[in-house]
Amino acid sequence: xxxxxxxxxxxxxxxxxxxxxxxxxxxxxxxxxxxxxxxxxxxxxxxxxxxxxxxxxxxxxxxxxxxxxxxxxxxxxxxxxxxxxxxxxxxxxxxxxxxxxxxxxxxxxxxxxxxx
Amino acid sequence: xxxxxxxxxxxxxxxxxxxxxxxxxxxxxxxxxxxxxxxxxxxxxxxxxxxxxxxxxxxxxxxxxxxxxxxxxxxxxxxxxxxxxxxxxxxxxxxxxxxxxxxxxxxxxxxxxxxxxxxxxxxxxxxxxxxxxxxxxxxxxxxx
Lengths: 116, 144
Known about the structure:
The complex is a heterodimer.
Chain A: H1 2-30, H2 34-65, H3 71-102
Helix pairs in contact in A: 1-2, 2-3
Chain B: H1 5-27, H2 36-54, H3 56-62, H4 65-88, H5 106-137
Helix pairs in contact in B: 1-2, 2-3, 2-5, 4-5
């Protein structure tokens, strides 16, 4: 029962992560300019990878519940990986957006939308 | 102080963790993926990041080019030192089993020999990477 619940949660999280990565990839391909694409790409790093790691966490919890204490180290590593992703990917997105602004790229606006 | 606060704070916060991760990769080389070369590259990446965010002059104050050159030579010396030590103890070049006295278990010698050699690789790769980065980043643009 417990195993089934953890497996179901794990499946839901990994599917959600894959969904966010798919949406982010579509966004990178379809968005009109650098800034909007960055918005989509930032999604894959934080939400997509975050949900994937959450799904893996449920799997490790299941293994620990079965008495495999070595999986504690994997659990700690997953949490650390998530924490570092949480710091590094927004910083990278910020640096890219700054580089775009410094390079003189004007943010895209819809045609006919002439409020400056 | 300009407005690049996020990059500066991020670099300062994350640098020690990147250095720690390099050491993790270094000492994990016996059991899993990793080793001296990768750890050296990660170690050097911290200084490349520092130079990109804070400027080359400040990076050269933290890590002078002379120290980088010295590291490049020191690592090779460490590697050769381990190799020649085992040679003078009666084995072949880099035969770690002869690293310690004969009454020692030869596996101890193999264990510490690998660690010494990998440390040499780390120091050399780190020094050469930083020196290469300084060499390229220190160039001025030539207007023709």
